[in-house]
Amino acid sequence: MHGGWPSTCQGRYWITGNGIGYLDDLGFWAFGEFRGGCLHHARHRFTPC
C-alpha cells in the first residue's frame, strides 16, 4: 500500500529498454531505470533478493 491507498498496488507497467513506467488505478505515474541489476526509482535502489 502506498500512503494508505490500496489501489496503488493495481495498475499497469511497461518496460522499454532499461526503463520501466508505472501507472496505478488512481492515476499516479512513476518511472524507474534498471542499472547494474538493480531498479533505481525515486532516489531508491531496489536489489534482487
UniProtKB/TrEMBL annotation:
Could you tell me which InterPro entries the record lists for this protein? Atu4866-like_sf, Uncharacterised_Atu4866
Query: Which domain of life does the UniProt lineage start with?
Result: Bacteria
Q: Which Pfam families match?
A: Atu4866
Which named protein is this?
Atu4866 domain-containing protein
Q: Which organism is it from?
A: Streptomyces andamanensis
The beginning of the lineage is: Bacteria, Bacillati, Actinomycetota, Actinomycetes, Kitasatosporales
